[in-house]
Amino acid sequence: MLSLRTTNCVLKVLKTARNEQSFHRWLAPTLRELKRRKDSQGPEKPVHRKSFLEWNYDSEIYAFSKRLGEDFNNDLLLKAFTERSYIIDEEEKQKSVGIEQPTLNLIDNKELVAKGSEFIDDIVKRYLRTVLPRLPEEGIIELHKYLTSVETLSHVSYHIGTPELILCADFPVEKLTMANVLKSIIAALIESSGENRAAIFVRDFILTQIADKDLLQFWDLQHPIKLLSDILARDNIQSPEPRLVGCSGKNTILACFRVGLYTPHNKQIIGLGVGETVDIAHEMAAIDGLRQLFGTPENILFPYNLELEQLCASTDKNLSVNEWSQKNLPVQPTNFELHQVKMTSSC
Amino acid sequence: MVFTTAMMLVRSRGPDEFWRKRKIFKIAAHFSGRRRNCYSIAIKAVHRALQFATIGRALRKSDMIVLWNTRIRAGCEEHGIELNTFKEGLSRCDIQLNKKVLADLAIWEPSTFKALSDLSKSVSIDYELPGSEKYNVPTNVVTRGLLKK
Amino acid sequence: MSQFGRVKQWNTFARCWHLFDATWQNPLQCSPLIEKYLKGLHKPIYHPFVDCGDHVVIMNSKQIAFPGEEWRRRVYFHHTGYSGGASWTPAWELHEKDPTMIFRKAVYHYMKGNLFRRVVMERLHIYPDSNVPEEIMENITNQIQPLRPIPKTLDSYSNEEIEKYPKIIDYPQDYLLSK
């Protein structure tokens, strides 16, 4: 049996030893155990930012408008972010609590979506017709279809930070909802700061999506060879003559052919294409010829400084493919060309 | 094995075995076999790997210079001018593009590179640099020497 | 990737076929030149890890030339792996056995040994004479300029050219020319 003195000594030694130890032996095993328990729970479900304590929706909405550098009417912006599904959801919640006639001071964004959608369609088409006066109407429509698709709009919407602000029932937010909210934000902008600001917004955020892209990839040209010869026939030029300009490794699977299209009357090259077979190269040469005729070369630079009054009228339309020819092209310079002339003269 | 916080990294300096080894195992995470799981083997492999990395940082610079030179030489060859004459001509025009930019131009901007080679050619003809006798005079460049003639 | 971008990529990485006439050429001096085309060092897109090299077809490898005593002095070593299996073959003997071997070895040994070397060598096609198969001849789009000019041999001059050649002296009547 230990005497009192020995016990005291042992305790003292233990105490000093504990004081000297500046690190925690227990920490690593504890953390490991915590990690094990956390892992056994399975992966964490994504939570909405609004479930956090310091979430302040009003200041977030205000910050959103300032981040974009626009002056929104805050009520309108709130309306733009409110989806129909959210209101229904909230009303049901109140009913389940026992409120017979739930009152919510919220209006959904249905009208704004329709208005914004119309505005985007108008601006996109007018901008494309202004900067691409030679591209046939079919091409303009295909480009417009790409720019106003749910994919493109939701991509833009996601990256300006809407998903956390949208008031809707679905979480994570669906693509269609994000696209709709972008439309309604633009409608809210029209009502807050006028059409000019909204047009600049559309130009900066939506129309920039085609920058540095091959424009003819959105327009699937059927039978480009026939199309090119039809167009040239309208200008009284005989159908172009394909010539094999170069080939390498003809008998191998890595063969590469280069076909040039020449006009028969003045022997000028109008298109050059390459491909793994002569047929593909011929087709690509025709596409290249069309690309040059339609004024959409590979290295096209869009003027992203046009404003609303510089765009052509909504009633103007480009020529259709079926009547497209050099003769039928508008002779008068478009607004955009006038603008360019002004720019160069002022420089 | 990732340090989620800076605190964890600081801890690994201490005498606690777990944290000390954790730092080494983190570096050895992508090694194969026992070199990633057994500490005494892992520590040797990590030392070697870090030595190689130190040497590699210097080697990468020289490797890139060799690669850029190869690419620029290939670009010059397409337009029938030697690398040294090309560089000399550019420096006499006070065009201060480095090897990296020239190599990028040779790949992505072939027509810009051709313009540079034409410029260099006509300058080397002007200054009668060695080897410039065999060049055809580029028609798209006007130099001071041409005006004097 | 758009359709146009796809064919552009195809065009950039297309393999060319080059022809090289080895008549009177020194294989040791030619190997850097051949290596350049095989590895794609002549393209601005070159990178050591990118397979961007071209094909080279060498014809008339039987007609290669070595300077001085090289045919006798240059020796190719081979070891079977068994004891006493070493053998040394002089260049002239190897050339008699396989007229493509000396050129192939020259190019192979010039290149730095790495995992790409044998892949690159697969793109080198050597033929001892000018009978290159028609199928391969159709692929060729470029000819590599030989390093040294091919000298004209005495028997390739026609009688007219020899007669026209200015004479310094006339041989005496009783001078016997060796036949």
TrEMBL record, chain A:
<dbReference type="GO" id="GO:0006396">
    <property type="term" value="P:RNA processing"/>
</dbReference>
<keyword id="KW-0496">Mitochondrion</keyword>
<dbReference type="Pfam" id="PF22892">
    <property type="entry name" value="DSRM_MRPL44"/>
</dbReference>
<dbReference type="GO" id="GO:0005840">
    <property type="term" value="C:ribosome"/>
</dbReference>
<dbReference type="InterPro" id="IPR036389">
    <property type="entry name" value="RNase_III_sf"/>
</dbReference>
<dbReference type="GO" id="GO:0005739">
    <property type="term" value="C:mitochondrion"/>
</dbReference>
<keyword id="KW-0687">Ribonucleoprotein</keyword>
<keyword id="KW-0809">Transit peptide</keyword>
<protein>
    <recommendedName>
        <fullName>Large ribosomal subunit protein mL44</fullName>
    </recommendedName>
</protein>
<dbReference type="GO" id="GO:0004525">
    <property type="term" value="F:ribonuclease III activity"/>
</dbReference>
<dbReference type="InterPro" id="IPR055189">
    <property type="entry name" value="RM44_endonuclase"/>
</dbReference>
<feature type="domain" description="RNase III">
    <location>
        <begin position="61"/>
        <end position="194"/>
    </location>
</feature>
<dbReference type="Pfam" id="PF22935">
    <property type="entry name" value="RM44_endonuclase"/>
</dbReference>
<dbReference type="GO" id="GO:0003725">
    <property type="term" value="F:double-stranded RNA binding"/>
</dbReference>
<dbReference type="InterPro" id="IPR000999">
    <property type="entry name" value="RNase_III_dom"/>
</dbReference>
TrEMBL record, chain B:
<protein>
    <recommendedName>
        <fullName>Large ribosomal subunit protein bL20m</fullName>
    </recommendedName>
</protein>
<dbReference type="InterPro" id="IPR005813">
    <property type="entry name" value="Ribosomal_bL20"/>
</dbReference>
<comment type="similarity">
    <text>Belongs to the bacterial ribosomal protein bL20 family.</text>
</comment>
<keyword id="KW-0689">Ribosomal protein</keyword>
<dbReference type="GO" id="GO:1990904">
    <property type="term" value="C:ribonucleoprotein complex"/>
</dbReference>
<keyword id="KW-0687">Ribonucleoprotein</keyword>
<dbReference type="GO" id="GO:0006412">
    <property type="term" value="P:translation"/>
</dbReference>
<dbReference type="Pfam" id="PF00453">
    <property type="entry name" value="Ribosomal_L20"/>
</dbReference>
<dbReference type="InterPro" id="IPR035566">
    <property type="entry name" value="Ribosomal_protein_bL20_C"/>
</dbReference>
<dbReference type="GO" id="GO:0003735">
    <property type="term" value="F:structural constituent of ribosome"/>
</dbReference>
<dbReference type="GO" id="GO:0005840">
    <property type="term" value="C:ribosome"/>
</dbReference>
<dbReference type="GO" id="GO:0019843">
    <property type="term" value="F:rRNA binding"/>
</dbReference>
TrEMBL record, chain C:
<dbReference type="GO" id="GO:0003729">
    <property type="term" value="F:mRNA binding"/>
</dbReference>
<dbReference type="InterPro" id="IPR005822">
    <property type="entry name" value="Ribosomal_uL13"/>
</dbReference>
<keyword id="KW-0687">Ribonucleoprotein</keyword>
<comment type="similarity">
    <text>Belongs to the universal ribosomal protein uL13 family.</text>
</comment>
<protein>
    <submittedName>
        <fullName>39S ribosomal protein L13</fullName>
    </submittedName>
</protein>
<keyword id="KW-0689">Ribosomal protein</keyword>
<dbReference type="GO" id="GO:0017148">
    <property type="term" value="P:negative regulation of translation"/>
</dbReference>
<dbReference type="GO" id="GO:0006412">
    <property type="term" value="P:translation"/>
</dbReference>
<dbReference type="GO" id="GO:0005762">
    <property type="term" value="C:mitochondrial large ribosomal subunit"/>
</dbReference>
<dbReference type="GO" id="GO:0003735">
    <property type="term" value="F:structural constituent of ribosome"/>
</dbReference>
<dbReference type="InterPro" id="IPR036899">
    <property type="entry name" value="Ribosomal_uL13_sf"/>
</dbReference>
<dbReference type="Pfam" id="PF00572">
    <property type="entry name" value="Ribosomal_L13"/>
</dbReference>
<dbReference type="InterPro" id="IPR005823">
    <property type="entry name" value="Ribosomal_uL13_bac-type"/>
</dbReference>
